[in-house]
């Protein structure tokens, strides 16, 4: 069984290189059998239909902006409200529902299926925002510092797939009957609202392609405010966005 990975990155301030080419996404096929297990929305859908609250060690007493201030030894997955999940889902699914021209190299794409929320993907998304905010980095690769939670466990800089595994989206008991699976990631920095983040992705051909990919079925978004940002700072972002996509076909 293969997991296909499509990863691209966008900053409102500057592009960060993905590999040797800042405009090229990372595309890999991974044989999940060789890697140790880490032990749809619109107004017609009900809340329980669009939010998959998987068993996840989420602390209901702490927000994302509070959790990002914790030391690595006290690291916690923060609470995200159903209202925020629905807000993000509705914004993403509205964008996906409308056919659009993604621009040079991608071209016209038809409207895509709505996505549902997955808490395991949220845990991975927040973990990466936590790392980027505290390590003052902006890339798909983890910082390799103490703030790279998955990387610390692996004694190296983490990658997207490893963070998703570490947060249990690909656990063996959740992959029963799965024949193909895939994940994707978009990053953005600086945009204060989900609408502005989406507009940035839409206006970048490869981010638009990821956003409109009809293979994806699930998603999660983490947004954190950088506590170290100061007005006039041109080197760092005030906000960090990590948007993770996933699918499992049975």
Chart the SSEs and their pairings.
Blueprint: E1 2-9, E2 26-31, H1 47-50, E3 51-52, E4 58-59, H2 64-67, E5 77-78, H3 82-97, E6 100-101, E7 108-109, E8 116-118, H4 119-135, H5 149-154, H6 160-166, E9 180-189, H7 194-202, H8 205-211, E10 218-225, E11 239-249
Helix pairs in contact: 4-6
Write a structural description.
The chain is α/β, with parallel strands linked by helices. It has one domain: CAP (Pathogenesis-related Protein p14a, 3-Layer(aba) Sandwich), CATH 3.40.33.10. The chain contains eight helices and eleven strands. The chain is globular. InterPro entries: CAP_dom, CAP_sf. This is Probable transmembrane protein.
Bulk shape? globular
What fraction of the residues are assigned to beta strands by DSSP? 15-25%
Reading off the top of the CATH hierarchy, the class is best stated as Alpha Beta
Order of helices and strands: EEHEEHEHEEEHHHEHHEE
Specify the CATH homologous superfamily. CAP
- N-to-C terminal Cα separation, in Å? 11 Å
Strand order of the largest sheet: 2-1-9-11-10-8-3
Number of H- or I-type helical stretches: 8
* CATH architecture term: 3-Layer(aba) Sandwich
Q: What is the total number of structural domains?
A: 1
Which radius of gyration do the C-alpha atoms yield? Answer: 17 Å
Domain SCP: 110-243
Keywords: Membrane, Transmembrane
InterPro entries: CAP_dom, CAP_sf
Protein name: Probable transmembrane protein
